What does this fold into?
Amino acid sequence: MKKSRWYWLIVLVVILILGGLFYWYEWRPIKIRQECFKISQVSSQNITDINYKNCLRWSGLKY
It folds into this structure.
């Protein structure tokens, strides 16, 4: 009985870790890029690219 509980606990921990990694490296950067794109579209067309890159840097992503 105890072996089964440990098994499910380990499975749960692995799933939580994988979910956290997916969020941090996939979902979060996508959402940041979408938000930066929206912000850069509001600005004048001449500085859109600069604003987009600055927003990515401020959010902690490399462009």
User: Anything to note?
Assistant: The CA atoms of residues 3 and 15 lie 18 Å apart. The longest helix spans residues 2-42.
